[in-house]
Amino acid sequence: MDLGVMIQYYRTKNGMTQKDLASGICSISYLSKMENGSIQPKDDLAELLFERLDISFSEITSYDEDDINKKIQQLYKKIQQNDHDSSTSLVEELERIITPFHRTETQNFFLLVHFYYLINERDSEKFSLMAPEVLRLENTFYEEKKYYYCKIIGLYYQLISYPNKSNEYFEKARFLLEEHTLKDPEIYYLLALSLTSMKKPAYSNYYCQMATDQFANEFLYSKVTDCYILYGINYTILEAYDLAENYLKQVLHSKPMGHTSDVREQAKHYLAVLSYWKEEYDVAINFFDDTVTEDLHSDQVLEKYLILSKINYIKGELDQAKEYLNKGKELLKKEKHVSFQHRFFILDHQIHGTIGEFHFIRKAEKVLLPFFEETEDSTSYNEVVQILANIHYDREEFQVATEYFKKLMIK
């Protein structure tokens, strides 16, 4: 690696002139010759220059491309293990040592895994800014790294509520996993998760069982717990409420499973959701009241506020409904979650009695229905169709209402 070119890169990056950097170390003309490649600096002189640039000379010269790629692989594993401190330390180290002078393949690999880190940290502002650049890299990875790419992009789409796109990439990852005889049971869990989001719980349970078996064989019991929670969600969707409750209560009351507070809060959250779908509203409220919001993911907090607002709306407690509605809307200012934005929009108009207004109807027809159809959110899609059918029926626009009722039958 050309030290002179690196010195010039870090000097301009730090906004320093050649005079600033050379002062007391070497002449400006000597520094200029180093930077243009006319001479190769001695290590002791280069070390002084890098020290002034606040760069570790030993660190930046001790890694070759293979070492850096191993570090990136290590970072990927630490993220996968949810080891926040180690992964953060590795990101900071790699940001220091990787420069534009390393191979493009190395830079791209780090960009991808850094993106994975931001997704895992749920830093939506940063990963949203990085996403366009990462999405352009799809055709630059091959074999195992292509597997990483498909898995990470699937996670990205899952997080921003495009489960059909996430499922597409998880399927690609599964194919690559099996084609190259790689080992990663998590991909079956992620496939199951995307299918649950697409309201395909039976298919989800198929992959969830594959994940459960492999996690158990590897003694990854925290991952088995994740699968049990997913079974609970799936059986809730299937309206097999007794089975759903059995899985979730196993997590809540089993010491090996519910050994951490965040796992217990997850179980209580989904027991609350289950109670809501059983129309046991007071039970749902009690479970939600017993959850620690700080231990939930932002999408679960949004779901909590949405359901609590709906329950209070159903019970005629409009002030309470508006309170939870406003909490959800405040959180949505920080979280870019399109699905919840649309669902809170619907509830807002229901609570305020404005669903018959032109603005609502137009957005429902032109934005909400296409979005929920594209993301395969059949529950929200049917809700909007039902609202539009009722609006047109109440207006005695029976032909239009009939078309919407037909959509309900088809879906």
TrEMBL record:
InterPro entries: Cro/C1-type_HTH, HTH-type_regulator_Rgg, Lambda_DNA-bd_dom_sf, TPR-like_helical_dom_sf. PROSITE patterns: HTH_CROC1. Transmembrane segments: none annotated. Signal peptide: none annotated. One of its GO terms (molecular function) is DNA binding. Pfam families: HTH_3 (PF01381). SUPFAM superfamilies: lambda repressor-like DNA-binding domains (SSF47413), TPR-like (SSF48452). It comes from the Bacteria. Residues 7-60 form the HTH cro/C1-type domain. PANTHER family: TRANSCRIPTIONAL ACTIVATOR, TRANSCRIPTIONAL REGULATOR-RELATED. This is HTH cro/C1-type domain-containing protein. It comes from Halalkalibacillus sediminis.
